[in-house]
What does this fold into?
Amino acid sequence: MDECQQLIREYFQRRLGEWGDNSPLHHEASQLAAGVLDPGERRGLDSVQSFEQEPSVRGAELDLLVGFVDDGIERRVAMPLLSLAMVHLKRYFSVDEGEFVDARPREVARLIGERLDAILADGVIDQPEDLEQVELQQIFDLSYDDYLALGCPAIERAYQNLDRGIDPRTNDAPGARARKMALLLPLYNLAQAQRGERGRERLRRVPLTRTGGPATLVRTVKMPLPSWINEVSSIATTVGVFLAWWQLRLSQRQATTDFEDSLAEQYRNIVHELPVGALLGEDIGETEYKAALDDFYRYIDLSNTQVFLRATRRISDSTWTIWAEGIEQHLRRPAFARAWAEIKERAQDSFHELRRLEGSGFRSDPKLWSRLQAPVTGTLPKAQ
It folds into this structure.
């Protein structure tokens, strides 16, 4: 069992007793606690079919996933591992992109706000903290605008505390505090701009009201600022936006690298358990094959996950080129080919992504596929 599956199983084993036996959440948690990650298995549950359209049930499922992230952060789980686990869980629960921010904005905002409060307590975001925020955006499928809108209160609190000289963890000299404010200023400006844009959008939707007579419109008259102030402000804002965008781009690249490294580590752990003869392209004996079938299955499961992650643009072009070649080479080796044929036969509703890649002769780039609906993984049925 890999770290990702173990993380999921342990969380749902701890929470299993929170619902009645007839609750769909109890049945879903039971599957996940047993290591079942196939969305098809979830859709086959009678209780899920009966309550599938209930908003309260769907909300509870999303709350369960937010709680999973909360729990992982509290237990200091590595963010790439937590992010990968959420890939599996979002597929299991068929979470649509944007569903968290649409259906659970307060819960996601609370989690992001708490993390930002902790990170910004010293007025500085270092690289690990920066990467954590990028991973959280990916975990909850947030655009940068969504992230700024949800994290805006925490960003504003941190900047205003520095501006007032309040730093709960350090006694900074004014010069050090000024440097921290300068580092935080681009993010603060972007958050302010995002808040302003959302506020203007809300105002555009407010109809005129009557106050005992004809409809009245109260306007706040502002004196125009000198043009040079507007020009300098515009330049400063542009520079701040560019710097924030560039920092985000660097952070996203590093987060992608860390995420890919976590998958490479899983691959090394699996390969270490496989027979050397199978890796060298040799035929292996029946006893050795049967003893290694579970490890072959883990390799197929990981390969399918890699294809899915490429399809969802979590894997870089250069890494995918190497991985695709490696998957093709392994599946052409006799022992791997035999195991893959048996697994396809015994788990016919699983591994659609890997089947599709194989069907293209390993030449199709999953990044160019349309949105996937097929299961990521499954449970290998027992041989008849």
